[in-house]
Amino acid sequence: MPPATAAAPATTRPRTKPAVVRREELMDAAQALFLDKGFDATSVDEIVAQAGVAKGTFYFHFKTKDDVLRALRERFVVKFHERLESAVAACAPDDWSGRLEAWMEAAVDGYLDQFALHDLVFHEFRPSSRRMQHDNPITRHLATLIADGAQNGAWTAPYPRLMAAMLFGGFHGAVDEEIVAPSKTTRQRLTAEVLRFCRMALGLACS
Amino acid sequence: MPPATAAAPATTRPRTKPAVVRREELMDAAQALFLDKGFDATSVDEIVAQAGVAKGTFYFHFKTKDDVLRALRERFVVKFHERLESAVAACAPDDWSGRLEAWMEAAVDGYLDQFALHDLVFHEFRPSSRRMQHDNPITRHLATLIADGAQNGAWTAPYPRLMAAMLFGGFHGAVDEEIVAPSKTTRQRLTAEVLRFCRMALGLACS
Amino acid sequence: MPPATAAAPATTRPRTKPAVVRREELMDAAQALFLDKGFDATSVDEIVAQAGVAKGTFYFHFKTKDDVLRALRERFVVKFHERLESAVAACAPDDWSGRLEAWMEAAVDGYLDQFALHDLVFHEFRPSSRRMQHDNPITRHLATLIADGAQNGAWTAPYPRLMAAMLFGGFHGAVDEEIVAPSKTTRQRLTAEVLRFCRMALGLACS
Amino acid sequence: MPPATAAAPATTRPRTKPAVVRREELMDAAQALFLDKGFDATSVDEIVAQAGVAKGTFYFHFKTKDDVLRALRERFVVKFHERLESAVAACAPDDWSGRLEAWMEAAVDGYLDQFALHDLVFHEFRPSSRRMQHDNPITRHLATLIADGAQNGAWTAPYPRLMAAMLFGGFHGAVDEEIVAPSKTTRQRLTAEVLRFCRMALGLACS
DNA sequence: TATGAATGAGTGTTCATTCAT
DNA sequence: AATGAATGAACACTCATTCAT
């Protein structure tokens, strides 16, 4: 006689999953397709096909197609930010130079690893990416780091927010340049240059 | 035989204008609408309505809708570049510091004056704006300036192209910051900060 | 053996209400929304939100969305009919003129008070409202009144059913006119005109 | 050698017709389908298939699907009105009784002939048919007729607009009744009853 | 009684582009 | 150079309804 539990189909994969899970699955499907063919070129039909659900399910979990992109962006920013935070947290609280170095190194690495996703969530996203660049945890993090360092005499930065914007722009420009026209330069060398650039701009060295 | 002029009514206001004029009119109409409602949200129908011509006329002058945007972008880049060139040309050929200063000043002014148009032609334009940033006359101009200055001992820049990218990124970041969160700072003060930033990064000052 | 009442927590506010109550609540929610935005423009989602229940609950109490509308219509007709009946019942059984007058007066009042709801349940309801007008308690009531009065020599009406239809149409037209183009006329005056119209049509007066 | 004209395909049915013609064709197709399956149940796809054009062509000539219905309604009203006008115009200008009779007769005939179309354009049309009933040429025509007759002493009607509304309602009710429950009565007999009803209401007879 | 995740058929509408004149 | 009627592929989104708990 089979055990009582065998009477009920053991393999009943529940068709309805916790909302959070389904949502995540849809986001993954969308992200893969967006990266592959671009946001506009991807239809909701394709997303649901990839996720293995019906169309209505998509609209049960997201308001619109844009809504997924927003969710994707938020997820990206949070993860990227965590990466930076833990890198910085590994340094001594008063080693400002080290903290800045850690931030930049993690940022270069992260950006280089994810630039396709970065472009997706920042470029394809309407309301101008400018505003978005301004108030997101990542840039705020850098601004705080600059400000704190300045306050503790680690460097000079009369306008920390502005300095942060310029350093962020510089880092961004460097990595973009590398992506478009990959030099023989190693990633390490690139990071070193970015760091040197930052230190110079902050008046930490005068070579 | 009747006189030739009698055949055609003398008062015929030529319905057909020189191609270049019509083209320019269509570009102006498109630019105005694109700036107002965005590229995607603007239909060719609206463009021709604004320009006062029939639909077919549009496609007589432009291959596709994207084609106008490309034309708009080219026009923008050329004009912006001219602005920079003449600013720089006003300086002594060997006054490298002055030339850089002139470039940056003109760039800040120009960007601040035209950022909406800048965003339109660079942001809405597919093939990633990254590639575009890389090879356009403006950034090439800066790179050349950096390289020449370095070659003449005006400053140090082991990787001029990279330095140019970082300085351009820095300038871009500063102006973007100012656009999003306008400080009490005057435009002059902003320019000064950008310049200080550049000089520091190039090792020209150590304050 | 523990007391029976101890088994169930005494304070359990019953999550489940008597079916009739829930049903009524859902009907009220639906009616409010239908009146506000129209039948088609109202989704079942909105109805359940308004009623504070889950989607499934709606389909537990009603077969389809149309089903609520039908229920609403029945409720309306019953209430309206009651209004007429009691008004007529207040007259002497053989005061035919008075009974007709009472019917019309109550009808004008009732219609004027509820025309929005009337339109909802009669207009938005498929199977042509024509058929519905034909066999509902209200028009049947009037037809009977006409027929009985004729039979008792109160007035002449060779085709009572037809006469009823025409008088009903006349009354309807008058009130509709008043709704669309409200005159300075009081409701009383309107009722008087409708009555005069009916009496004339029935040959009760020759002014 | 074939005649010159044969060189050009003689059968070249011009693919592009005058806008008015195409528009009319689309309206005819739509009307046929709407009458057959109802407005909602008819898709634009079906309309264009029936009309033998592409979908875009539909939207070149009409703003929306509702727009055709509106056009259909306007066409119906105009034609119906013409019918009434010419019937009335055939009577002597001062034969008020005859003119009213002509109007009613033509209305009954017209309505009976077209009630399906009537229902379509008046019932399926949003913004409440009430308002529509109020200001359309047909009811205005009747109101004018009543008013003019009253002014010339042909009958009494202290509130012509209201009387017109009631007579129109009465006529409408009679015909609707006949449609729903066709009696053995001939159309002629029905018309006679409606007329008698009108004359009574106007105080023209006291039988 | 009640829940709420899942379904999926259904459709109006947009719009870049073409082409005969 | 210019017209404007015609095309037709493409898609996001809605929503009534079901059903396993």
What does this structure look like?
- The structure is a homotetramer of 207-residue chains.
- By secondary structure, the first copy, chain A, is mainly alpha-helical.
- Chain A has two domains: 16-62, Arc Repressor Mutant, subunit A (Orthogonal Bundle), CATH 1.10.10.60; 73-201, Tetracycline Repressor, domain 2 (Orthogonal Bundle), CATH 1.10.357.10.
- Chain A contains ten helices and no strands.
- Chain A has helices at residues 4-7, 19-37, 44-51, 55-61, 65-89, 96-123, 129-134, 137-151, 160-180, 187-201.
- Chain A is elongated, with a radius of gyration of 22 Å.
- In chain A, 30% of the residues are buried.
- Mean pLDDT of chain A is 89; it is low at 1-12.
- Chains in contact: A-B, C-D.
- The interface between A and B is large, with 42 and 42 residues.
- Chain A binds a DNA duplex (21 and 21 nucleotides) through residues 14-17, 19, 22, 43-45, 53-61, 64-65.
Per-chain topology:
4 copies of one chain form a homotetramer.
Chain A: H1 4-7, H2 19-37, H3 44-51, H4 55-61, H5 65-89, H6 96-123, H7 129-134, H8 137-151, H9 160-180, H10 187-201
The first copy, chain A, binds a DNA duplex (21 and 21 nucleotides) through residues 14-17, 19, 22, 43-45, 53-61, 64-65.
